[in-house]
Write a structure and sequence with these properties.
Elements (H helix, E strand, L loop, with lengths): L1 H4 L5 H9 L2 E2 L2 E2 L8 H12 L2 H14 L3 H25 L6 H8 L2 H36 L12 H16 L9 H12 L2 E2 L2 E2 L4 H16 L1 H27 L14 H6 L2 H8 L15 H30 L10 H8 L3 H35 L18 H17 L2 H27 L17 H15 L4 H9 L3 E2 L2 H6 L3 H14 L9 H8 L3 H9 L5 H4 E2 L1 H5 L3 H20 L3 H16 L2 H25 L1 H6 L1
Antiparallel strand pairs: 1-2, 3-4, 5-6
Helix pairs in contact: 3-11, 3-14, 3-16, 4-13, 4-14, 5-13, 5-14, 5-18, 5-28, 6-7, 6-18, 7-10, 7-16, 7-17, 7-18, 7-29, 8-9, 10-16, 10-17, 11-14, 11-16, 15-16, 16-17, 18-28, 18-29, 19-27, 27-28
Length: 641
């Protein structure tokens, strides 16, 4: 059975069928209308969305102006992966993205796992985007003095958090009009939501609405989707370029000093936020069968879109941190915030409009990507044949598109985005890992057909080993204390967010009172997490404050297994690193895909152990479906029989 689990699709058969206009023994039926310009625009549409309009603020808050360096580092990491995607897209010009690539490289069970994981990037990731779109859309309505009831504009979890924030603010004597938008919305939702039995009806209707609208657009055809995407991309690029040009006239270079206020560790604290800003460039590989010349155009489209987005991200990061001090940027809408702060409200409003357009284009690209992966899996027999159904008039994967719309739309009514963001990141990185590893596997097989694009070959045998040696030297010299603390499992002080979430209401009240007495006049409000975060800017002061807090030490510090469990992913990464060094020495592996593999594995290792547990549960569900249906219904299994 083990050999049949890793049965592979023939690359010769795939490429010959594609050349004949056939995909996996099925007439493709998809319109070939996409060129380099369209693919580049789709890549930009997928990448520039919630990242540049929201998560860039939290990253800048942690890293200061130096966050521009992290955008370069992350772009290089994504660039390695993009080169590998481009090589596969050139070799295998059919729909399916990393799923199809894994089927050729590693075999069926790994292909199923990656196809299942890609649901996290496309479908589950789109839930996050839909919720983000809803927030921007509500802000736009407020600008027109249109007020949706709170219970129709958010989910129950966020409403409860906002309600609790509002109650604390009111108890502290704060006027309702000065409360945050989040607090006002949550308070309105909880207080005015209709009841069905004991259930308060709180639904994010705008998120559901936009998903249904985008699903309809993806259903009626790739040509219409292409035209809509191109228009939206031109608009948001014009707005972003305008922001950069206008913003540079208001830059105060004093705000760029110090460039690394929290050291390089502060820059790296923004890794997850910055990586999230790059997710999506790979989505265009799912449209291979709708490209006029996929082997030539897909690699160009990926690289062009990644390059354009990187330049824009770096310039926006510099403008943001130059216009205001980096410590002011921990807000949901940093671009609009900086212009509003400088009394340029009309530009701030235009940015809000652009944010709605940007997230709409992301939704469109991802809602097109997921059905095409399911279509490929269905053609291979791993999903019911219905998923491969192509609409006779619109020539789109109709059934898969409808299922994707429901899978994204219904949860977006109820679910909070935080949990979904974590799953999206680890699922995407896992896909990148397998694509990079797949190129390494295929590059050592001389009998495998080559596409029009090939990742440049640089022998990693000596270079990779030297890089590892350099890393070890730096770890035990420049970063010696952190390295020794990691190895010895030295107790670690809890971050403000971890500390506050572990406290009960009485403890929060006591500590807030204690801090207000100790630092009279220092804090603007009574928000404990915000006040502790302000103190944490000075590591020495924060440690002294936490040491003296009137709570048990177990709440102040992590130690023993409680601390070690968070390091398990990093220890696994270090062990894998040794294995990769041996593999590169023995097989003369290509350096670029190897570096892409290592960078993506490192980012996965930086994610929390809870992300890994959730991801493992997701994979177990997927494998249950595979062994219950897909294994016996696979086309390769039928050929064998």
């Amino acid at each position: 059975m083990s050999s049949s689990l890793f049965r592979k699709k023939s690359l010769d058969k795939i490429t010959s069928d594609a050349a004949a206009g056939i995909s996996d023994s099925h007439a493709s039926g998809l319109k070939k209308v996409l060129g380099v310009k369209d693919l580049t625009f789709m890549g930009i549409a997928a990448v520039i969305g919630a990242g540049i309009f929201s998560t860039i603020g939290s990253a800048a808050y942690n890293g200061g102006p130096g966050i521009a360096i992290l955008f370069v580092i992350t772009a290089i990491t994504c660039g390695f992966s993009a080169l590998c995607y481009a090589e596969f897209a050139s070799r295998i010009p059919i729909s399916g993205s990393a799923y199809t690539y894994a089927y050729v490289s590693f075999g069926e069970v790994v292909a199923w796992i990656i196809g299942w994981a890609l649901i996290l990037e496309y479908a589950i990731g789109n839930i996050v985007v839909a919720i983000s779109w809803s927030g921007y859309f509500n802000n736009l309505l407020e600008g027109f003095h249109i007020h949706l009831p709170g219970w129709l504009a958010t989910n129950a979890s966020n409403a409860q958090l906002g309600y609790e924030e509002a109650v604390k603010a009111l108890a502290a004597g704060e006027a309702p009009e000065t409360m945050t938008k989040h607090a006002k919305l949550g308070y309105d939702a909880i207080m005015n939501a209709p009841m069905i039995g004991t259930w308060k009806v709180i639904l994010n209707v705008p998120a559901f609405f936009i998903v249904m609208l985008i699903t309809w657009l993806a259903y009626i055809g790739i040509k219409e989707s292409k035209r809509s995407t191109n228009i939206m991309v031109i608009f948001k690029l014009a707005v972003i370029v305008g922001i950069i040009i206008v913003g540079f006239f208001y830059v105060d270079t004093n705000n760029w000093t110090p460039f690394l206020p929290n050291g390089f560790g502060g820059v790296l604290a923004g890794v997850s936020a910055v990586f999230y800003a790059y997710i999506g460039f790979d989505a265009i590989s799912t449209t291979a069968e709708e490209c006029k010349d996929p082997q030539r155009d897909l690699p160009k489209g990926m690289m062009y879109s990644l390059l354009i987005c990187t330049v824009l991200y770096i310039l926006v990061a510099l403008v943001l941190t130059g216009m205001v001090h980096y410590s002011e940027l921990k807000v949901d809408d940093p671009l609009a915030y900086v212009f509003d702060k400088l009394n340029m409200n009309k530009i701030g409003y235009l940015i809000s409009v652009s944010a709605v357009v940007a997230t709409t284009s992301v939704l469109l690209v991802f809602q097109m990507g997921q059905p095409r992966i399911w279509m490929s899996m269905s053609r291979d027999g791993l999903l019911p044949k219905k998923f491969a159904q192509v609409h006779p008039k619109y020539q789109t994967p109709s059934f898969s598109t409808i299922v994707t719309g429901l899978l994204v739309g219904i949860p977006s009514l109820f679910i909070s985005s935080g949990f979904m963001t974590d799953l999206t990141s680890i699922g995407t990185l896992f896909a990148f890992v397998l694509v990079c590893a797949g190129v390494l596997v295929l590059q050592n097989k001389p009998d495998v057909p080559r596409g029009k694009f090939k990742t440049p070959y640089i022998n990693s045998k000596y270079i990779f080993s030297l890089l590892l040696l350099l890393g070890v030297i730096l770890a035990f010299t420049v970063n010696k204390k952190a390295t020794m603390d990691f190895i010895s499992n030295e107790k670690q002080i809890n971050s403000p967010s971890t500390l506050v979430t572990s406290l009960n209401e009485s403890q929060i009240k006591d500590i807030s009172t204690h801090l207000q007495e100790q630092f009279k006049g220092k804090f603007e409000n009574n928000d404990l997490e915000q006040n502790l975060s302000q103190l944490a800017e000075d590591e020495t002061v924060y440690k002294q404050v936490v040491d003296n807090l009137p709570i048990d030490n177990s709440l102040k510090y992590e130690s023993g297994f409680t601390l070690f469990k968070h390091k398990i992913p990093m220890w696994i990464f270090l062990i894998v690193l040794i294995g990769l060094a041996i593999w590169s020495w023995k097989e003369n592996l290509s350096l670029i895909p190897l570096l892409g593999l290592v960078c993506c594995l490192y980012m996965m290792a930086e994610l929390s152990v809870w992300n890994w547990l959730y991801f493992t549960c997701w994979l177990i569900i997927g494998l249950t479906i595979y062994f219950g249906f897909s294994y016996k219904n696979s086309n390769l299994n039928k050929i064998k029989m």
